[in-house]
Design goal:
52% helix, six-stranded mixed beta sheet, 15% strand, 747 residues
Length: 747
């Protein structure tokens, strides 16, 4: 037979071998297809970031003067509506040649607003009437969806003829601003998470390609009897594997396209993805098309490495190879060496070291686990019959179950490390939220401050007011350093600090260098300096956690009588208040009360909300990675199920012999449970230790204290254990069929 005929024969055996062949082909196509779909999504990451950077670049204002262009006064503010952030971009042209932001064909006139598609939907669906007053103008158009950074972003372009504090903009299309360190760090964590979630995919592809190994060996033995050579058998095996791989590529492409069509409503780490963004680069697509079939063929050939196919039957080598330890420790040592130095994440070198070190540490799990499992089972003795049967099986073949469990353990280790790192931010902000729950903070600048405060005080149910007027203060000599200075009544001072017995005329400071009679200079928002003399000996200042003084970073506090004669009209005003009516929309009423002063007044609420955008991003990242870990655990479970079913099918004669000698079916089922559970339990120990060690090494990204999210660790471990129980339960029908006496018959 020629090579072409060998390949055609392999194709016919894959699709024309009866119902069993069709079932194996469908399982292979579904398994490989799921893996291919995940790989195509991962291959689109570069396009997603590139398109996002282009949209950021197009929307970023340029402030360098351009000849012949009348500058556009530009001011971007933000408001929240029931936990959703709304960006209000105030635009004031200074001439007919003022630049136009992307997504609209003209600038909004005063009293007009352009809305992003999602904001227009939100306004139309709001039946409470609380959102409409927040928009300072009449909606006259929709911003082009392609110009909005994320599909679900809520953005409004607001036209105005009165804009104080705006930035002169001459064009749009500047380079994006420098990334913040925390964004770089969390991006590094997400890249590690992407590797963690993709690693088991390749293990799964290899496992699926082993489907029907016993049946394939019997067919190859028949072909060997018919005169086929060993080279021909390898070609036939490759052709059978390629049929499942190609079918999986087609199925995976279909799954990817279906997901791509619905991706506009999918939010990733506060970043939305447009369908056109989810386009894998062609080099990576070509690599996937080549690697997946090559991996299936290589795995099928590797499965026959210890199998001798002869005309009269199949002989398998029973002595497992002796595994060596030294090379398995190399990735672990290299990973620690990369992460241990404090290179930070602000530079490219630090991010590469972090990602590379984490990847190497987790690669050490699949390298170390087979050796560790072999050593453990070789030293176990005694136990019930089911346990002894499992140990005997694992001694004969510890590599196959350890490979499947290794992919699962990589997910566990990565998820534990990332969850622990991301939990730190949640822990740091949780106490802040608890201490400020139910309160809103209003900050106003400039001449509208007094009017904004009066509007807030008129909100129904508003109570518990704390108010501070803040400026900057410094010594009168040249070269002084400015620090925060605030004026507040005694009730506010005692609520925000540990001071007691406050009297009007007192002064408080956290430094001991300020004395009575010392000359100071107060600097307001207009950068005007006003002389002030400390009237009394300052009392020590100690702020309460999360109080108004801590929020403003105050170093000096003075009562109104202590600054008598100083003009405070241009000082910023910050007011903290709470609602007494129990209205869940109290904060929305506060925001509506200051809506006429949009751009000059901000309202912040910590009631059920994260204290900052950074913390929201950490929380989103935790949820996404946790969901991804559960998804890949499910994929690993499918892989383990395939392996369990295949082992039952291959050992049906051995299981039939056990049953014939009087071994109950329940003992055989329990042995399968031990056989699946022992590698998993060992892997959980290794994964937990690796995950916590990785978190301990990487905690310098954000803080110095190690936080371990034991609840997430417990949930992941419980999911893994439940998966093993379900896999074992699913094999019970196959075991009952395998222990029948007719399986002992032979031709």
């Amino acid at each position: 037979m020629t090579g072409r005929e060998d390949l055609l024969l392999g194709f016919r055996l894959a699709v024309g071998g009866g119902r069993g062949s069709i079932v194996r082909l469908v399982l292979s196509a579904v398994g490989v297809g799921l893996a291919v779909a995940i790989l195509l999504v991962g291959a689109s990451a570069g396009t997603v970031m590139e398109n996002r950077d282009q949209r950021v670049h197009a929307a970023s204002p340029r402030h360098e003067p351009v000849p012949g262009v009348a500058p556009l006064n530009y001011s971007a503010t933000k408001t929240d509506f029931r936990g959703q952030a709304i960006a209000l971009v105030h635009l004031q042209p200074t001439g007919p040649a003022s630049p136009i932001p992307p997504g609209v064909d003209r600038l909004p006139a005063p009293g007009e607003v352009f809305l992003s598609p999602k904001l227009e939907e939100l306004v139309a669906s709001d039946t409470s009437g609380l959102l409409r007053p927040r928009l300072p103008g009449k909606p006259v158009g929709i911003i082009d969806a392609a110009a909005v950074l994320n599909p679900n972003d809520l953005v409004a372009y607001v036209g105005t003829d009165e804009l104080s504090g705006g930035i002169a903009t001459y064009a749009f299309g500047s380079d994006p601003a420098y990334e913040k360190p925390f964004e770089q760090g969390i991006l590094s964590l997400l890249l590690v998470g992407l590797f963690v979630l993709l690693t088991p995919v390749f293990i799964f592809v290899g496992t699926v390609s082993r489907l029907g190994g016993a049946s394939r060996d019997r067919r190859l033995a028949a072909l060997r009897l018919a005169g086929s050579s060993l080279t021909q058998l390898r070609r036939i095996t490759a052709a059978e594997s390629l049929v499942g791989a190609v079918s999986g590529l087609v199925a995976g492409t279909v799954l990817f396209l279906l997901f791509r069509g619905a991706v506009a409503d999918f939010q990733v780490f506060r970043f939305g993805v447009y369908p056109k963004d989810l386009t894998p680069s062609w080099p990576l697509v070509a690599l996937i098309v080549l690697v997946v079939p090559a991996l299936t063929v290589a795995t099928a050939w590797a499965a026959q490495r210890h199998t001798v196919v002869e005309p009269l039957g199949v002989v398998r080598e029973t002595t497992p190879p002796q595994r060596r330890l030294w090379w398995r420790l190399l990735p672990i040592v290299a990973g620690i060496a990369l992460i241990a130095p404090d290179l930070g994440v602000a530079g490219e070198l630090g991010r590469i070291a972090l990602i590379g070190g984490a990847v190497l540490l987790m690669l050490g799990i699949p390298a170390l686990l087979p050796w560790l499992l072999e050593r453990v089972v070789s030293r176990i003795k005694g136990g019930p019959p089911s346990f002894q049967l499992a140990i005997r099986r694992l001694r004969n073949d510890s590599g196959t179950p350890s490979r499947v469990v290794a992919g699962l353990c990589v997910v566990l280790a990565g998820a534990i490390a990332l969850q622990s790192l991301l939990t730190g931010q949640a822990v740091l902000t949780a106490g802040y939220e608890d201490r400020t729950a139910g309160r809103a903070t209003v900050h106003a600048d400039g001449p509208v401050a007094d009017r904004a405060v009066a509007a807030v005080r008129a909100v129904p149910g508003a109570a518990g007011f704390q108010s501070m007027r803040s400026m900057l203060v410094g010594a009168s000599s040249a070269g002084y350093a400015l620090t925060s200075f605030a004026v507040a009544d005694c009730a506010t001072i005692e609520a925000a600090t540990t001071a007691t017995g406050c009297r009007d005329g007192d002064v408080f400071t956290d430094t001991t260098s300020i004395q009575k009679g010392q000359s100071m200079k107060l600097v307001d928002n207009d950068k005007r300096e006003r002389p002030w003399t400390v009237p009394v000996t300052p009392r020590p200042l100690e702020v309460k956690p999360s109080g108004l003084a801590e929020q403003l970073g105050v170093s000096f506090l003075a009562t109104p009588a202590a600054v008598a004669g100083v003009d405070l009209a241009a000082a910023s005003v910050t007011v903290s208040l709470r609602g007494t009516t129990g209205d869940p929309d109290f904060v929305e009423l506060v925001r509506n009360s200051v809506a006429p002063y949009s751009g000059q007044v901000t309202v912040t609420s910590y009631n059920g909300q994260r204290a900052s955008d950074e913390a929201r991003m950490f929380d989103d990242a935790r949820n996404i990675l946790f969901g991804g870990a559960l998804l890949v655990l499910l994929l690993a479970g499918v892989s383990l199920l395939v392996l369990a079913q295949e082992q039952v099918r291959e050992r049906r004669r051995a299981l039939g012999a056990l049953s014939a000698t009087g071994v109950p079916v329940r003992v055989i089922v329990r042995s399968l449970l031990w056989q699946n559970g022992i590698p998993l339990l060992l892997g959980i120990v290794v994964a937990t230790a690796t995950g916590i060690a990785l978190a301990a090494l990487g905690r310098r990204l954000f803080w110095d204290v190690l936080y371990v999210d034991w609840s997430a660790v417990g949930m992941l471990i419980a999911a893994a254990v439940a998966m093993v129980l379900l896999v074992t339960a699913s094999t019970v029908p196959s075991v009952r069929s395998a222990v029948k006496a007719e399986n002992l018959r032979t031709e």
